[in-house]
Amino acid sequence: MAFVHLECGRNQLQRQHHVMHSTAMPTNIVGPRVPINEGFPGLKKIYANPDIFVIENFLDDSYCQDLIDKASEKKLVRSPVAYAGWTEDFKDLVELSSKGPIAWIALLSSWFQVKNSGGGQVDLVVHALQNYAVVFVVTTILIGGFTYSRAEGLKALRTSTSTTLDDMTNPSSGAREFVRQASKLFHSNEDFDTSIVSEAALFEAPTVIRYEPDQILAPHYDANRSAETEDANRGGQTLATLLVYLNDVERGGLTRFGKLSSSAAIGDVDRDRITSADEDKLIIQPKRGDALLFFPADRNGQFDPRTEHEGMPAIDEKWIARIWKHQRRVPAPFGLSEASLSDLG
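^ that's the sequence the OP posted. Answer follows.
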């Protein structure tokens, strides 16, 4: 089963998405999600198991516009693609080859060598070990080349541009307000000011993403089955995704959950906004200032395959801002620096 990382952000260091090419639903047991402030203003659950929320008026228009303006000033770059889950794929391919084709090639080649030279069983074993080592090295190099070529061939899966905003010094900035609101959402205690830094330390820096007409984000996951290895320097597994729509999008640009049925949606929410006349899939119509919250993995980091989603082709221009919450402290440059965290207080 293959995954792809879709990286975006400053210096190509932004957190990765994971695109799955298999249509099979992986089997696993998903536990409870991370807790949130269930009394957060505007919070509406639209789907249960997996839990998905819409948060109305999460950011005011002025903050939305500031996020767009600051991202435009900083200059957005093409969101690059990198292979996600490559460590597992590489390991699986090498292990499969070493147990099958490599062993047979080494054994057969050594048998012909001994047969032609007239050697005995000891010679057969020596030649087999030598040939196995040579074939193993060559096969490993070929698998590495295959992995690289696959990553290069998947760059069309995401065509948006993006950048990160980590300056928290301006009290009226959209990025600062986004982080503070996110901290309130994920913190249920009343003593908010004392916890804002510890909560925000688990976030990646806010990312602003722009989709121009015809640009897409292919079906993908925000969590990673190999998070402990590949995302160790990003705070481990992604436990929650918080998206804010920065502009109204009347045509195209829907957020679509391809494994969830819109007929199973719950709660007091505008049905026209989450359903499609063409198919029974859960979709979200972008509305300026509203946020979308879902959980790519449970609170222990167990990957949840049900949260596969995509950004459908844009017709009108679409802007979003995103924060990922991780298991542990996310160090700079992926997360906020110590100076930026102190500016939040």
